[in-house]
From TrEMBL:
It comes from Paramecium octaurelia. It comes from the Eukaryota. Keywords: Repeat. RCC repeats lie at residues 22-73, 74-127, 128-190, 191-247, 248-308. This is RCC1-like domain-containing protein.
Amino acid sequence: MNCLTHSGLFKSLWTRPIYRAGNLYTWGVHSLGCGINQDSQGDQLRPRRIDAFNGNVAKVYPSEYFTAVITDNGDLYTFGHNKYGQLGLGNTEEHQTPQLVRFFRDKGLKVTDVALGSNHAVALASDGNVYTWGNANNSFLDQLQGKASGLGDNYQNNVVTPQAVQKLVGTPKGKFVSAGINYSIVVNENNQVYVWGAGKRGELGNGCSLNFKYPELNPIFEQLSKSGYTIQKIKSCFAGTLALLNEGIVVGWGRSYYGSLGVRQQEYVVTDLENYAPTPVNLKYFQPNEKVVDFDLGYNLSLFLTDQNRIYISGFDESYVPRPIDLPQNEKILKFSASNNSYAILTDKNFYTSNEFVIPQQKRNLGFLFKSQPKELFDSGNIEQFGGGYRVRYAIVNN
């Protein structure tokens, strides 16, 4: 980590917007959790409003196979696949429409943040505890194959209702959670980073390839914290993670599919696919003194927004290091999302999408952008949030 150096107090020219709650629209692969109960199992080709919510959706997190929604009053809803109890409903029945996770409401708790792995979930609640549920990966075959669990305890069976991670009870309150295929990450208010689960591809960012059944402090972030670095945002997708540190530094670790983490040092050279320690994103193609103020990570690509109102893309086997996206200079970038094989950018004038972000039939190269007005897609121009790193995408809209 010698390449991380102080560059003075980081002052962003761009401030992250304060999101309001709104109505939920989803689209994508129906069977993976679009929240729509339909007779046909065909894909949901265009954005469609979910009737279960009435302007009260605050946060959405779609994973590979299921989706979680937090409402403005702190309730948690889930829908999609449920073979391992990953919906947290106390059963293993699949639900195509949103279901209230009654555990938290019954205990008088509000959910403040949530993250989903492929088949498990991790959440922060108002009592200060970290809760997990879903696949325990504890069968004989799982153990023989060296599979780990993102649950944080040594469960003998899958967990179908949320359970507090015992090793974290009494520790400082969590600030961020993140989760990938079989691992979980919690950043607490003391800027400590706890990691557990699968680590063979560097997913835990702790410098090794071991699996951990229980939460362990990440020693590299312990050292970075002593040097004044703190995590401002973190997101995992499949087997990779990106984190935005103060001073405009972005680091990535884990598996960099198709160059998705932007940390490779040479383009077109298939090396450093797996990163076992936080590695700075390659800023070779950024403008001098340009600082990253936000990012988003999808299955096979990432986007980086700078304080100069420029956005860069890395991944999708087209660019292994960040490259600028050509947008009109007179349009202010408001929001953006990296997804599976595609991305979207909202400016103060237009809504730009690539490939199949909105309509699955749209497939060209990532450099071709479809331009539209939000009202054409969502019956409103007031998009509060949008995203989806895998094959289900969403938008929170005020209309």
